[in-house]
Fold this sequence. Notes:
Shape of chain A: globular
Radius of gyration of chain A: 19 Å
Oligomer: heterodimer
Low-confidence stretches of chain A: none
Strand content of chain B: under 5%
Distance between the termini of chain B: 33 Å
Largest sheet of chain B: none
Radius of gyration of chain B: 20 Å
Order of helices and strands of chain A: HHHHHHHEEH
Amino acid sequence: MGLLSKKDSKLILDPLADNNPITIQVLGICSALAITAELKASIVMAISVLFVLGIGNVVISLMRNIIPSKIRIIVQLVVVAALVIIVDQVLKAFAYELSKTLSVFVGLIITNCIIMGRFEAFALANGPWRSFLDGIGNAAGYGLILVIVGFFRELLGSGTLLGFPVLGNPIPGELSGLYALGYENNGFMLLSPMALIVVGIIIWVQRSRNKALIED
Amino acid sequence: MEHLELFLKSIFIDNMVFATFLGMCSYLAVSKKVSTAVGLGAAVIFVLAITVPLNWLLDQYLLQPGALKWLGAEYADYDLSFLSFIMFIATIATMVQLVEIVVEKFSPSLYNSLGIFLPLIAVNCAILGGSLFMQSREIPTLGLATVYGIGSGIGWFLAILAIAAIREKIRYSNVPPALRGLGITFIITGLMAIGFMSFGGMLTGGDEAPKEEKTVKVEEPKKDTDKELANNTKVNE
């Protein structure tokens, strides 16, 4: 990392594991769970949040000295809302089907706690470059969990990844792959409760590996 | 009848927390004690009951394609729906501030119990989600929009009350160390969501698509015990 000093790269790498926004800081779970039934939707959501949080952090950080602290929440909401409108319009123009799947959850990026959380905790106190790195890092940590959850739910729930069948052909009469051995998809993975349970298991695994994170 | 149906549906079937995961952040952060959970839950009902009908009016007379017709024929083909995010969130943020000021002036005791939660609410996804779902489900009248707002609020209230009660009890259980706190809360919420799925056939009398029936049936035995668990805890508390 010649480009980044040690302190800067810490900003990006920390949120990926030991300070992950979802599993440790408990932020941004709202929109994270509902759209993870498919890997593709998870990836698009992760990229959207990356865009909004990266740019939003820079904008807020540039304005941090001129925002009166009493109305800062409204100012922040307006900045996020403007960015989210851009994301929403781009999705509607270039990936209409996907924007139907994501439905209101694109709009809900506005109230995603990660975004307000990072604005409040970081961008209001730091310069634009460091805020940008912090935004990218946190959004990447968020996206990582989203992709992991989406991967398992789509694989176990419908036997596909990104829409491609990876476990064989499940249609009766022309069975192949694992299905020929008697494997069946677990449709339950596609229902909402399993998203919560999968995240619970990720937290379990992460905290068993790193004992310092255990709460009492 | 239509109103009652939407009311029950928004509380149980489309429960904000269990079916759409809205407001999870505050749901997880403020559910350690029953008393604070009640405060936040009441504030959510209050704000949803005000903002959903208000945003319905905005949507109907300002944002929808053709909504500006009342200004004159030349405005009839304007479509401002891309502005809905920013309009909704601005309405919510101002309403929350306004409610805070009004409540502080007229009912200091209510302010003391709700007060600290009100600012939190502006960024609660359940509130914006309520308005966005109202828009995407095309709720036809102002009355239904109000009912939808109140119903979703009550659903959220029930969910946070139940999880707070369970979390108060679970302190005395022997949970694996790595699952303590956040992990077990996630898994309990998942189990409660399975319980709430049993309300799915409530309004249709169980005449759902056969495919859905099958998935639900597999989980039948588990589901009942979970629901009982949730109910018991509520009763004990």
